Amino acid sequence: MRPDLHVASPRLLAAGFRHGFSRPGLNLGLPAAGADHQRLADDVGYDLDALRVCRQVHGAAVLDAPTRAECAAAEADAIVARAPGAAAGVRVADCAPILLADPRSGAVAAVHAGWRGVVAGVLRAAVVCLAPARPAELLAALGPCIGACCFEVGDEVADLLVAASSPDARVTRGAGRPHASLELALRWQLRAMGVAELDVVGGCTRCDPARWHSYRRDGAASGRAMAVIAARAPNS
Question: Looking at the whole model, is its pTM more than 0.90?
């Protein structure tokens, strides 16, 4: 693993899941350079032909073990991969990437959650799809996203996030507009579903141009990162 290309969750690594959150040395947006996709696949250790990505629309739709053709025609913000070696990926540049893994079955999911996705319930939809009867067995890793330090929002957005999670999602910053925490909102949602095994990887994307892409910081010039995870064989 090259630390300049991706970072990983110790919890997921220990459970045998190949995965990663890409670094700015790679730009994996659309249209993405095929060479960068191959570099990430080689570094993480999955077959690029087995990667499934789709058009993300800030909703709560989940694709369950889709084919490549199904992904090309679909709009969704979470992908589940079940066959060993199959990989699921989401692209981000301030929104939160969440990787989920089921150690018993070996199945995995990649989730894209900005504030609209948090409010829509995309994380819950992915957990229910992946392991509806035993969410407490899942492992989760929350990747780098915009932090409360930089995520200034309007009162309406802050209120929606609070309603979808907890009062902690709204962070007061002086007398100006409120700030919001995607991390705290998503942590609350995971705990509410019984998912306790969580790693938080990275930091605030907007604050750290050397480590992360950020649309809020760089606008249209921003690249895109990818969070990807590959399914493995089930535990015996």
Answer: yes
Q: What is the pLDDT of residues 144-181, one digit of tens each?
A: 999 999 999 999 999 999 999 999 999 987 778 899 99
Max alpha carbon distance in the chain (Å)?
A: 56
Chain-centre distance for alpha carbon 179: 21
SS3 readout for the chain: CCCCCEECCHHHHHCCCCEEEECCCCCCCCCCCHHHHHHHHHHHCCCHHHEECCECCCCCCEEECCCHHHHHCCECCEEEECCCCCEEEEEECCCEEEEEECCCCCCEEEEEECHHHHHHCHHHHHHHHHCCCCHHHCEEEECCECCCCCCECCHHHHHHHHHHCCHHHEECCCCCCCEECHHHHHHHHHHHCCCCEEEECCCECCCCCCCCCCHHHHHHHCCCEEEEEECCCCCC
Read off the pLDDT of residues 73-111 as tens digits, 9 standing for 90 and up.
899 999 999 999 999 999 999 999 999 999 999 999 999
Strand order in the sheet with 19-22: 6-7, 19-22, 225-230, 87-92, 51-52
Contact at 8 Å (CB) between 43 and 26?
Answer: no
Site of tokens 């330090």: 149
Report the Cα–Cα distance between both ends of the chain, in Å, rounded: 27
